[in-house]
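job 3f2a | input accepted
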Amino acid sequence: MDTARPKTETMNVTTARQQFSQLLNRVHQESVRVVIEKDGVPVAFLAPMIDLRRLYRDDEKREEVFRVIAEMSRGFEDVPEEELEREIEKAIAEVRAERRAARAARVA
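job 3f2a | predicted structure (108 res):
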């Protein structure tokens, strides 16, 4: 799988308008991404449909993660914030201690 980032170009709106058909062909055939600027300010982005599908998929994943976090948070609604902070610090300290022990075991 090719993980190289697709080429992104910047073009002013006048040039994009004049070359729109060729621009669409390049985006489709070469997977080029184009940032369109008006008076030097980026105002639009032209990209292959695969990018839009990927964006939708990523949005769905992000929404699912936030849904799970919200669901988990409901279980702690009645716990005082100070207690949560203490437990978080305790958990962080435990993980750090486990990592130090694992590193020490690898060195030994």
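job 3f2a | The first strand starts at residue 8 and ends at 12.
job 3f2a | closed
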